[in-house]
Amino acid sequence: MRTPINIGTHRLHDEPNINYQANRCYTGGGDLEEIKTAARRIRTLDDWKRAFLDLAGKARAENRLVPAAAYYRAANFFMAPDD
User: Fold this and answer.
1) What DSSP character marks residue 2?
2) pTM value?
3) Is 29 exposed, middle or buried (0-12, 13-18, 19+ CB in 10 A)?
4) Model confidence over 15-49: pLDDT tens digits?
5) Helix-helix angle 32-40:45-61, to 10 degrees
């Protein structure tokens, strides 16, 4: 199985840091359309965590392991050490 390489920078969120991290998730194996949908729901870092954990769980349940790993990594980026 070949894993596609996602390239390019997209406007996914108005907040520059959130946009940058969402693009990192995309280039790390996330699905662009799923990330776009999730980004629309993000207003806070807690929203970020919930959105990407939801995506990770869905992708994992569908045995899409590369996107699941990208989403777990994205969620973890803004989590506190005791989370």
Assistant:
1) P
2) 0.92
3) buried
4) 999 999 999 999 999 999 999 999 999 999 999 99
5) 140
